[in-house]
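Sample 3 of the quickstart, ligand adenosine-5'-triphosphate:
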Amino acid sequence: MRWEKAMLVYNRKAGKEKAGQLGEAVEALAGEVGELTLAQTVEPGDGEKICRERGGDYDLLLLLGGDGTVHECINGAAAAARAPEIAVLPGGTCNDFARTLQLPMQVGRAAEEVLAGRVLDTDVGTINGRIFTNFVGIGLITETSENIDSEQKERMGKLSYFLSTLRTLRQAEPFGFRLTHDEGVVDSEAVMILAANGRSLGTAKLPFAGDGLHDGMLDVLIVREAGLSLAWQVLNGGDLTDYRESGGVIEYIRTSSLRIETDEPKRIDSDGEVYLQTPAEISVLPAKLRFFYGPEAAGLLSDEPADSGSGPGLFGS
Ligand SMILES: Nc1ncnc2c1ncn2[C@@H]1O[C@H](COP(=O)(O)OP(=O)(O)OP(=O)(O)O)[C@@H](O)[C@H]1O
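Result:
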């Protein structure tokens, strides 16, 4: 028996209706878990409460849901006296953090990866005392998350994220900000600021080097113009090389912490959940929580130091 006690927290409302996910997860894990507790979230906030109050009682915590569920649950689990090992089972719509962990997108297969035991100390971010796994942002990204039409999301899944983005693009107003990072200060206007720990946004791969989860750093994009094709490319993980040279339309900063002040308080998007506002104090908590990874992450387990940004991504060289 690999784990004495495990708890599987699941959000039935996450993602599109996919019958059998819970059964797949239990089936895959039952043989290796002595006592498996199932805890269902009944309303927003439950995942955090369950994980805060009981997470420390388990060796293994399984989170079945999307990025919002993961966001809630890790905020609870990180506060537990002894944080358990955490497995994300992608039952949401975008599942961006599960993508960063390079997990298969089927719940049963992701659960099987837990048995492979690729568990690693992993960076998370902190913003105004809350934890995020994948990203925080202000401006366009917040409007994108808030404009998602839930019916459309239900029907179309990941595509809805981008359709929603296109709708908000036409309304993006620049805001004034001051951003203080490890090596300086930027005083300017932008339509979006994004600080990423993970590597996926709205299912698209972000154009940064490395896996982002073992470098103690955040990758920050300041986007100054909301040209349709430009923002599309940013959010779609496209090739930004041209824009890198384009007179500062997009500025890229790598930093371990940052402070963002804005002219007016701006709402903040944390892992797709919008409930904080600026000013924002943001930093990395290196190797804070232990997460399970997919097969592609095998290289990270070797004796070689983890990739700290020198990989093939656009901004790596
Ligand atoms: N029982 C519940 N009823 C309604 N909402 C819930 C319930 N449990 C959790 N929630 C809320 O559901 C929201 C959406 O969940 P989640 O983000 O996991 O799924 P998703 O939006 O489909 O996936 P993703 O964020 O990966 O696109 C979260 O904000 C969470 O607080």
